[in-house]
Write a structure and sequence with these properties.
Layout: H1 5-23, H2 26-33, H3 40-50, E1 64-65, E2 69-75, H4 79-95, E3 101-103, E4 112-117, H5 130-133, E5 138-144, E6 149-158, H6 164-177, H7 204-213, H8 224-230, H9 239-243
Helix pairs in contact: 3-7, 4-6
Amino acid sequence: MTILAKKWRKISILALAFTFLFAVGGVYLEGYRERIEYTQEEIAYFKEIALQVEYGSGMHQIHKWVEELKIKVIGAPTTEDLEALESTMENLNALSENLHMRHARKDEAANMEIYFIPHSEFLTKGYVEESVLKNNWGLGVIWWNRFGEINRAVILIATDRTNSTERAHLIREELTQSLGLLNDSWEDSESLFYQGWGTQNYTVRDEKVVQLLYDPRIKPNMAELDVDRALMTKAPFSLAQWFNH
């Protein structure tokens, strides 16, 4: 069999490429095959939650953590509170390989503080106005830099106005929203992001919202149009098309 030089070079390159992909790049191929896909309805809900804010201003852009979250617990949590926190951290860490949270070690500074304190002590912390605190038994405050990267968060959980079930919900809600998901919605009463009061857990769509925020295509400071462009599906590269070029 005679093989033209041009074809032979391509065959050699392909052989090397496949050897590399299967020996070294198997994880990449697996990750590509398992890439999470999102419906238009899920993307719309994500934009409502991630590009708007219930309190404050300065949103309409993506804000997210790019560094590891190091959490410090302050105050008087119960055993049930700590178990709810551990469960929430595990759930969130499992949703995205780009999201990492853990407890801060004693010899390092935390970038997220969670206070379990009486509601009457919320105002003494000076993080938000009294009008916001009045009917809120739990809330989170985040700070970000000029690049849209969140670098600090504080969560307040009232220990005197809530029972353990309600605090477990507040821990889930405030920890999740402090990832950069600061808006609530009236759309779905089962959602953790529901505007009304309840003790909701994560819905499948809630999990997709978190995964969307920490999808590597979504960058800090992106506006809505940027998000739409980033999530546009592109046709996969075809080796057959390259070989026959």
